[in-house]
Amino acid sequence: MAIDVEQLRATTTPEQLPFRIQKIGHVVLRVSDLQRSVDFYTKVLGFRISDVYPETMVPGGMVFMRCNQDHHGVALVGGTSGPAAKRELDHFAFEVATLDEVFRARKHLRAHNVPIVFEGRRRAGVQIAVEFNDPDGHHLEIYWGLDQIGTEGHVRPSTQWRGAKTLEEAIANPVPGQHPVLFDLSLMERKP
Question: Which residue, 146, 115, 166, 134, is CA-closest to 45?
Fold first, then answer.
């Protein structure tokens, strides 16, 4: 089925909804090996454990993890039979405060033999990112510099997106208004 891009763009949010969602709260993933996944999210990505449900409460057990003051941003439920089918969830992303952190994340992921599936800048939103998979094949992203939309609702035109296939290329070819300054230049990969 072909999509109608203009119709999709013209879709508006009603003004009178009785609530306003503030942010994405948390993601819950089903995993095949709960300990292996907890090790990945804590030891590789730096999450901290808030609570654990035993199998008597949730079949397969459940671990709640946080990256800020929220009780949990990611929760894992054990007991799946294999890797993620990746049919419904495309990916989820974690924001970091500086561009240096994206570069350090890339280096850290490589040091832990985590395959990187993309790095650089995609298009809409123009964030600079590194993308990778967790042990069950869930697609994750660590990013910096996502466009912010002001009260007037104007978004960056697609003519300014400037895709990049490496972090270094994203810095070398910045989008208007984004200032990708790397403070630790030793994080840059040099081409031979």
Answer: 134
